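Feature request disguised as a bug: please show the residue count (504) next to Glycerol-3-phosphate dehydrogenase in the output. Example input:
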Amino acid sequence: MGREIYDIFVIGGGINGCGIARDAVGRGYSVALAEMNDFASGTSSGATKLIHGGLRYLEHYEFRLVRESLMEREILWAMAPHIIWPLRFVLPYHKGGIRPAWLIRLGLFLYDHLGGRKLLPATSVLDMRRDPAGKPLKALFAKAFEYSDGWVDDARMVVLNARDAADKGATIMPRTKVVSARRENGLWHIETTDTVTGRNDSHQARMLVNAAGPWVDHVIRSAFGQNEAHHVRLVQGSHIVVKKKFDDPRAYFFQNPDNRIIFAIPYEGEFTLIGTTDRDYTADPRDVRISEEETVYLCNAASEYFKEPVRPEDIVWTYSAVRPLYDDGASKAQEATRDYVLKLEGEGNAAPLLNVFGGKLTTYRRLSEHALEKIGAAIGVKGAPWTAKSHLPGGDFPVRGYDAEVADLKRRYPFLADRHARRLVRRYGTRTKALLGEARSLDDLGRLFGGDLYEAEVTYLVEHEWARHAEDVLWRRTKDGLRLSKEQAQSLEEYMAAIPAMVG
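Example output, currently without the count:
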């Protein structure tokens, strides 16, 4: 009888679920969140990892989405300058190409002026015969347009939202599956199962938020017992990572003959990320893998631009995810809207339900604000919007202060190599000092698992970021999986299996 009744129970630990939970608890709502796997284990870690307006969405007349996205770029950068930073994009052009120069100029003019850009530099035109950006490309591309967008460590943005929500009082439950949810006496009665221990629990909440991403319709059908749920169009996007193709710090925006586009982006210092694909997907989202057809497509598309071809044997890693786009009836996967749709259900005294469809990394904060408007209308308003001026954990330093933060870390911990220090600040920002503690040498960081991944960092991720397995550490909390061998990864898994889960 004394069990807490939450104001809001959120299903889904991707960017939208964690963003809504953080915003809500910061306004004074009592919040619980359940994620059936690890945070960002689905769509939210399978993105192209951009904070961007969506230049190509202008062709589909998605002006509201583009404007909102453009406005969010600098807000998010200021919120988390450790995991988000500006990136310049080079869009090569040649006569007879897919899009005429005037159309590209018009799109970039709108891009520069539609979203209140203040800190990001404006579009410029490049002579590719002289600019270093032309060096890795074929001579055909004598001209290019250069514009600004941003980069984000997507999975870290998710877990930092979860961490901040927990710090503010939310009950955060990874590896917890919602098995049923029913309305009774004006409340939601939710049954969950801990997928690690098998423990079953019951929860009560005034309102339920279904932010399960690709599984949103599945939750409606299975947990709520509704047979008809066909709101989401699943679209597969796959990426390949190859050894570094160019030294330039800028990224490339390539236009393909089929009117699709791909990016080639500097990645983790030593690699190039190439993607994405767009194709409808009908199987279980848990089984998504890059196909041979997609691999060939990405290699061929990039090879149309690079002097040195991209071959399948060059690939060091691939990843693939399913985007849960709202089904707007678009004929092609790449034309389906990237905008989000929030649907509120529950009339009279029935406990309200908010289903979240679609969305993208760049607009997650605004989606959360709009969700809180719906929540306030349903169960009463608490608090005002607050996240626009906030910081994610570790991001409380000036928007252009990354280099100063690295320099300060190296002064405090002179035994750190420059690359190591930079990588730590990129992951943890000002919280790096909590991770390193009183260490005075590398030996004080404990066991080295490979690369520059030490026991102290693994312990921090277990204690503060819900990591339980090597995969959580190597492919979501960090990208050290690119640097560790299979044997080293297995050694890390064995080490983590022997220590208890102990997130505070």
